[in-house]
Amino acid sequence: MAETVVKIDKLVKRYKELVAVDHLSLEIKEGEVFGLLGPNGSGKTTTINCLLSLLSYDKGDIQIFGREMKPTAYDIKKDIGVVMQNVAVFEQLSVYENIDYFCGLYIKDKAERKKAVEEAIAFTGLEDFVKFKPKKLSGGLLRRLNIACGIAHKPKLIIFDEPTVAVDPQSRNKILEGIIDLNKAGATVIYTSHYMEEVEQICTRLAVMDKGRVIASGTIDELKSNVKCSETVKVEARALDDEIFEKVGELDHVFEKAYDNGELTVKYTGGKHNVVRLLNLLQNAGVHIGRVSSEQPTLNTVFLELTGKELRDKD
Length: 315
Ligand code: ADP
Ligand code: MG
What we know:
Oligomer: single chain
Number of domains: 2
Helix content: 25-40%
CATH superfamily of the largest domain: P-loop containing nucleotide triphosphate hydrolases
CATH class of the largest domain: Alpha Beta
Bound molecules: adenosine-5'-diphosphate, magnesium ion
């Protein structure tokens, strides 16, 4: 069994009346890329800030590397790298000087630090920008600088809080690939996001959050295997009459159907040949069929079934 890197037990954090984190428990093992997935305001950043002892909390226990986490636990903090949601760098320092500054908080030996800084620059692809001040950098490059500052000292645990928000697709892919590489090099990663696609792409295990609570956790396959809806089929079908619509509902495994704006949506609990059976039925009834699509469950399906609302927001 891999070692436990982070253990959070029944964490509660209130901002006055608002319970931002509500009896949250998590266990993260060495070598994982652990996702915290939840919509804006679900309590991800608050959880991270409590985990890092940057924020006091009302109840709960937090252990990192098997030891109690406290504001003064510097021996623990030196093995943690943090890439915060809001970019935090010094405007008056260059790219190189910023990375060197943050790395210098942990690595005092000059030669060792120079090597670490150069590796962080190469890793984030900032070679051509080392002399630039932050305000000359694009949003994506600034994010990469933020990451370089957080990881240069080679921490064992790295926390990324929404590192791809408002980042162009090219930088986004570079960031995600970089996280995988850091994990392959031995780091345990915590990754928060409200984008389910990213979490599906890189996380080995995750917790789904809503209103400060963990509403589901496990591997992506485990979470998906618990959803009722195993397939959603959509068919463009003009002039579908009530009788055929009712017959669709009688097909095997169908548990929900809707017909709206010329589009038929059918949800299934299982089954292998749902699309073929549905198209046969429609064709035999003489329905004109347009575009057809079949969707497997996503983490959005998981979220939708547990909360009744969409995880996706349109940004
Ligand atoms: P997330 O990171 O998932 O978007 P946050 O942890 O930032 O969520 O916020 C959780 C809840 O706590 C939200 O309702 C937010 O408005 C509230 N909140 C966050 N920070 C503060 C604060 N400093 N004071 C009061 N309320 C806050
Ligand atoms: Mg946040």
